[in-house]
Design a protein that fits this description.
The structure is a homodimer of 249-residue chains. With 249 residues, chain A is α/β, with parallel strands linked by helices. Chain A has 10 helices and 8 strands. The N and C termini of chain A lie far apart (57 Å).
Chain lengths: 249, 249
């Protein structure tokens, strides 16, 4: 089975690298950004092209959501499985005369950060059992956590990830803004943050909740509101309201 | 120098344990909850009492914020330093004829979770240089990260921690609610969450932001809003608005 990766961003790079590390290197990495492709090609020792897409059994489209449809039209090989890697696009965003699928890695990728590929959950969708099996095996070569999915399910997976990852990161940004304003190094908070996350590996997050809102400590809540303004104040109020609703305070 | 711990909750337990592990066991653990005190006393092999507070050089008050003032009135020894361990109370909440101080460990404590005490930042306040030095040394026996503070600074430290810890945990609770509704195991998201946090040990959170809001992906934002309601919808809108303001989108 031969695989081609389309794209040159973080997902393309890490999937290509994961395949190379597992001794099933992609036959080609294809895209528009020659500089990026060349860098990936040299690092991973795989061919690249910006012009001629090679024939392959599997194509993994690893481009931004808004570009998936256009890119999918470039693939002419009929006897192939074409999978996009988006958490939020339906399978039929793919436009071409081939078998369609989804190959969604639930992880946040940065080019410079090393990732333990074996722990990344992969969610697979395909139009038929045979393709599902092929993609399941491909993902299983990379990861221990491979599951079938549906578009409906994937929408909620993506939404959960937005709360648990994107929003969490934004809270770190707003927290850092507060500590920066007082010249308190944000690094001081890393042990606390690490512990907050270690906890939920063992305890339900609902049981792990601490802080003034769940204690219904009006004095602190009012004091804090006076220290905040604009978006941070809006977040403070919205989060506290949600905490108090969850615990019926 | 002799230390007494007052309280039998998570902070009391972990401070007592940290002192025992560093071979400066408290002379006594004192409080109202005999059952808890007895358990801590047996585990750590230190005396406890619910009635007679022994004389000591240092008293560390490790009780809930609302109980600190009352508890502080129980201490009769004049030649002593009494420190509370709260992130949010002023030093003069302490009511008694002794020298007052603050000994604030910036960490979230659960009784059952092991904690690497040497990494916990401690913030010290005292009324005079000598007491500051004594408490600084006591904290330094436990941790590598001991710093002087002020009440003003401590308010912002606590507020930063609310964003980076309490609110983050609540996002995990709301995320789990979403994944539970679709029978998707929340464990699938732990590698993603771990990676989100590992990232900010190396990159500024502002540079690490991903997700539909920072990409200004209207299609996904609207799709997600349709999947949510009540508090989770309010969080979704507030967080996205804040992200888009931060990146001037």
């Amino acid at each position: 089975m031969q695989t081609v990766i389309i794209g040159s961003g973080n997902v393309a790079y890490h999937l290509a690298k994961a395949l190379v590390e597992n001794k099933i290197p992609p036959a080609q990495i294809f895209g528009r950004n020659e500089k990026e492709l060349k860098a990936i090609s040299q690092e991973l020792n795989i061919p690249y092209s910006t012009k001629n897409l090679v024939d392959s059994d599997i194509y993994l489209i690893c481009v931004s959501d808004h570009a998936v449809e256009d890119v999918s039209e470039l693939i002419a090989k009929k006897d192939s499985v074409v999978a996009h890697t988006s958490g939020s696009l339906p399978i039929d965003i793919l436009k071409g005369d081939y078998r369609k699928a989804v190959f969604y890695p639930l992880q946040t990728f940065s080019k410079l950060k090393k990732i333990e590929y074996s722990k990344i959950p992969f969610f697979i969708e395909a139009e038929n059992e045979e393709d599902r099996k092929v993609l399941f095996e491909l993902a299983s070569a990379i990861s221990e956590n491979v599951m079938e999915s549906t578009y409906e399910k994937r929408k909620y997976i993506h939404l959960t990830a937005v709360f648990a990852c994107n929003f969490v990161n934004h809270l770190f940004s707003r927290a850092k803004e507060i500590s920066d304003s007082q010249e308190i190094p944000f690094d001081y908070f890393l042990p606390l943050i690490d512990e907050t996350v270690r906890k939920i590996h063992e305890i339900e997050p609902k049981s792990a909740q601490t802080g003034p809102a769940v204690r219904n400590d009006r004095r602190i809540l009012e004091l804090h509101e006076k220290l905040l303004k604009d978006e941070s104040l809006a977040i403070y109020k919205t989060m506290n309201h949600s905490i108090q609703k969850m615990y019926e305070l």
